[in-house]
Design goal:
This protein is α+β, with helices and mostly antiparallel strands. The chain folds into 4 domains: about 1-40, no CATH class; about 45-150, no CATH class; about 150-255; about 260-365, no CATH class. Helix content is about 15%, strand content about 45%. It contains 5 helices and 25 strands. Strands 12-13-11-15-14 form a 5-stranded mixed sheet. β24 (about 350-360) and β25 form a beta hairpin. α4 (about 165-185) packs across α5 (about 210-225).
């Protein structure tokens, strides 16, 4: 049935519709056209012939507008598909629009996207194809640029009281730093990075992007390895707003002793095998097997002398159990039978036991 209206282009009658045409509320000449004339000029999709996508050559981040994003793409085809999707404009009058893409890697930096679109316009199925060339341009993101330039606002220095940190301690401190920063990166924080790791004769330095993360790394190191932290801010510059910018040094001081050390507290009760270095040093007496803890005042710095390490122990024969306080073992150096203290942890049925020689004599070590 005719609505009494005629197409202003071809003059054909425009049929009456039960519902308003899509776009009719916006008015304009095209809303009055018949379906044939309308579809003659209709473009389902507006797509550029070429898109340039800046990609960081170092980390693979993609620039979107004024910011860089870690997109996690498997390859640049994924990046090209996303860029094409964002650049497309679908006509507002179309309904039930679907699209597919057939990407072709033209060369190392160009992906050709052959796109096919379908939709419904004025109850008429429409189809359109277009080709978009996506050019990958290599560059450097702000994050990688900062790393390359040595940028950092925190310096974590790992040292130890009265000694050099062990290789294991230094390696673990660096692992903890990388793990902490990786957790922040996983949340999308592109300001999280380790700039540099420097090894020194007396310890290791870790340069980190922000002061807050430097504090977090220092806390994690002392939580696991023991020790204390002091921080020292230094004014380095002013930002574009005139605010002062500080670089903070976090001086991590590991305890004088580590688990596995054998120390002599100098109290005539014999050496102690160190078991832990939390708020205080804890361990076990080699003569008795009793638990030992440094005083609250001494904390991690008890007035003690290092007498050896658990790894210095050697296996020797348990010859006999004399009584509740003494056993006989074979001296691993003289091969003579000697009497030594019997600690609580000794297994009387064992055939061999580990022993350690110190200035005070021979002591039975606990098993690993």
């Amino acid at each position: 049935m005719s609505s009494g209206r005629f197409c202003p282009r071809c003059g054909d009658a425009v049929p009456e519709r039960a519902e308003p045409l899509p776009g009719a509320e916006r008015g304009g000449r095209t809303a009055a056209l018949c379906d044939a004339c309308y579809l003659d000029d209709f473009d389902l999709v507006d797509a550029p012939g070429r898109i340039e996508v800046p990609v960081c050559a170092t980390c693979g981040a993609v620039r979107r507008g004024s910011s860089w994003r870690d997109v996690g793409a498997r390859d640049y085809t994924d990046v090209a598909v996303d860029a094409t999707r964002e650049a497309l404009g679908v006509h507002v009058d179309a309904r039930a629009v679907e699209w597919g893409v057939d990407p072709e890697q033209v060369d190392e930096n160009t992906v050709r996207m052959r796109c096919r679109f379908t939709g419904v316009v004025r109850e008429t199925p429409v189809e359109e194809e277009t080709t978009v060339d996506v050019k990958i341009s290599r560059g450097t993101c702000d994050r990688c640029g900062r790393i390359a330039g040595g940028y950092h606002n925190a310096l974590v220095q790992v040292r130890a009281a009265g000694r050099t940190p062990t290789g294991e301690e230094q390696s673990r401190a660096v692992e903890l730093a990388h793990a902490y920063v990786a957790e922040r990166e996983a949340t999308g924080d592109r300001n999280a990075f380790v700039t540099e790791v420097d090894e020194h004769a007396d310890g290791v330095d870790v340069k980190i992007s922000t002061a807050q993360m430097g504090q977090g790394v220092a806390t994690r190191i002392t939580r696991e390895l023991g020790g204390t932290t002091e921080h020292h801010p230094t004014l380095v510059t002013e930002d574009e707003d005139g605010d002062e910018v500080y670089r903070v040094t976090y001086a991590v001081r590991l305890p004088a002793f580590t688990p596995g050390d054998v120390i002599d507290p100098g109290d005539d009760d014999g050496p102690v095998l160190v078991r832990g270095v939390g708020d205080r040093v804890t361990g076990v007496r080699l003569a008795s097997g009793e638990r030992w803890t440094s005083s609250r005042e001494a904390g991690l710095d008890p007035d003690a002398r290092k007498a050896g390490e658990r790894s210095d122990g050697v296996e020797t024969a348990l010859v006999a159990v004399e009584d509740d306080h003494a056993v006989q073992v074979l001296d691993p150096e003289t091969y003579e039978t000697v009497s030594v203290s019997r600690p609580d942890y000794l297994d009387a049925d064992a055939e061999t036991v580990p022993v350690l020689r110190s200035r005070a004599g021979l002591y039975v070590l606990p098993e690993e």
